C-alpha cells in the first residue's frame, strides 16, 4: 500500500480530523432537531479530554506495535482487551460478575485464539518479535479498555444528573474525537518517525496521500479502488464505532467488547468470499469451525439469564 495513502487512511491525525467533521456535523443536526440539549453540551470537559488522550495513546502504541507484529498475532493479543474490560469494570464500576459471565468471556477468548491461530504461524511470530512489541500492543488494548469504561461512567453519571436522563452518544463521540485529533496532531513528530518519514517531508506525503485518496495525479501503485474503497471504509468504520458506542450506552463496556470480538471470525470468513479487490480468496483455517463454535458457546454462556432467586444482575 502506498505510504502516502496510509497517512490518510490509518489512525493518523487526518483520519481523526475527518471523523471530527462528520461527528460534529451529525451533532449539529441533532441539536437543531432537539435531540441534543444545551445541558448535554455543557458537560465537564475533563472526562472528554481524558478520553481523547487515552485513544490517542492507544492508537500510537497500537501502530508502533502493529508495524512489527504479524497480522495473525494481533487478534490473539487483542483478547487481552476483554480481560482489561473485566478488571477495570470491577475496579471503577464496582461490578461483580457471575460465574457464567466469566466463563462465557473465557470461552469467547479461547474461540478467537483457536480461530486465528489455527493454520497460521502466530505463535512462532510472537516468539520471534520478542517481548517488547507484544507488551506494547497489550498496553494499547489496556488504554482502549480504560477509554470504554470511562465512556460508560460518563453515560451512567449523565443518566443520574441530566434532566433528559441521558447524554446523546454523539456528544461523547464528537468531544472525544476532537480531543483525540488534537493529541494525535501533537504526536505527529513521533508518528512520522515511526513511519520512517522525515518530519519536514510530512506535508509532501500528506499532499500525495490526498491525491491517492482522490485517485488523481501520477500516483497509482497502492491507490487501486480509490476513492470508493476508502470512503466505504470510513463509512463502515464510523457505523461500526457508533453501533458499539450505542451498545455500550444501553448495556455495558463488556457487552460491547463481546460484540466486537464476534467480528473476528466474521472477518476471516469474509476473506474467503470472491470479493473484488482482495485477489485470490483465502481458505478457512482448519480450526475455524471449532473456534467459531467455542466463541458462540461463550456468548450464549455469558447471556444466560440469572435465576430469579439470585437477585438482579449487576451488568
From TrEMBL:
Compartments, record wording: Membrane
Membrane topology: Multi-pass membrane protein
Family named by the database record: Belongs to the CRT-like transporter family.
Membrane-crossing residue ranges in chain numbering: 12-29, 49-70, 105-125, 131-150, 170-191, 228-248, 253-271, 277-300
Pfam families found in the cross-reference section: CRT-like
Protein name, as recorded: Uncharacterized protein
Classification via PANTHER family: PROTEIN CLT2, CHLOROPLASTIC, PROTEIN CLT3, CHLOROPLASTIC
One GO location term (cellular component): membrane
Organism annotation: Aegilops tauschii subsp. strangulata
Keyword Translocase recorded: no
Record keywords, A-Z: Membrane, Transmembrane, Transmembrane helix, Transport
InterPro entries assigned to the protein according to its UniProt record, in alphabetical order: CRT-like, EmrE-like
Amino acid at each position: 500500500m502506498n505510504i502516502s495513502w496510509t497517512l490518510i487512511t490509518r489512525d493518523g491525525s487526518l483520519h481523526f480530523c475527518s471523523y471530527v467533521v462528520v461527528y460534529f456535523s451529525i451533532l449539529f443536526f441533532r441539536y437543531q432537531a432537539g435531540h441534543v440539549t444545551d445541558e448535554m453540551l455543557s458537560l465537564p470537559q475533563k472526562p472528554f479530554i481524558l478520553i481523547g488522550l487515552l485513544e490517542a495513546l492507544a492508537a500510537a502504541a497500537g501502530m508502533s506495535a502493529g508495524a512489527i507484529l504479524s497480522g495473525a498475532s494481533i487478534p490473539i493479543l487483542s483478547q487481552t482487551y476483554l480481560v482489561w474490560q473485566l478488571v477495570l469494570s470491577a475496579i471503577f464500576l464496582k461490578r461483580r460478575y457471575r460465574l457464567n459471565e466469566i466463563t462465557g468471556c473465557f470461552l469467547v477468548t479461547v474461540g478467537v485464539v483457536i480461530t486465528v491461530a489455527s493454520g497460521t504461524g502466530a505463535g512462532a511470530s510472537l516468539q520471534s518479535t520478542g517481548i517488547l512489541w507484544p507488551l506494547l500492543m497489550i498496553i494499547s488494548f489496556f488504554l482502549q479498555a480504560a477509554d470504554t469504561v470511562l465512556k460508560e461512567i460518563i453515560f451512567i453519571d449523565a443518566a443520574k444528573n441530566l434532566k433528559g436522563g441521558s447524554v446523546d452518544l454523539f456528544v461523547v463521540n464528537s468531544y472525544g474525537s476532537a480531543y483525540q485529533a488534537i493529541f494525535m496532531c501533537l504526536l505527529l513528530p513521533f508518528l512520522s518517525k515511526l513511519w520512517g518519514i522525515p518530519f519536514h517531508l510530512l506535508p509532501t506525503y500528506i499532499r500525495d496521500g490526498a491525491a491517492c485518496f482522490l485517485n488523481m495525479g501520477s500516483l497509482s501503485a497502492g491507490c487501486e479502488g480509490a476513492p470508493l474503497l476508502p470512503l466505504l471504509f470510513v463509512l463502515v468504520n464510523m457505523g461500526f464505532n457508533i453501533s458499539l458506542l450505542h451498545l455500550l450506552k444501553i448495556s455495558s463496556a463488556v457487552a460491547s467488547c463481546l460484540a466486537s470480538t464476534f467480528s473476528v471470525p466474521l472477518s476471516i470468513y469474509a476473506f474467503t468470499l470472491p470479493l473484488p479487490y482482495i485477489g485470490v480468496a483465502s481458505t478457512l483455517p482448519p480450526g475455524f469451525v471449532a473456534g467459531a463454535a467455542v466463541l458462540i458457546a461463550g456468548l450464549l454462556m455469558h447471556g444466560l439469564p440469572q435465576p430469579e432467586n439470585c437477585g438482579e444482575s449487576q451488568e
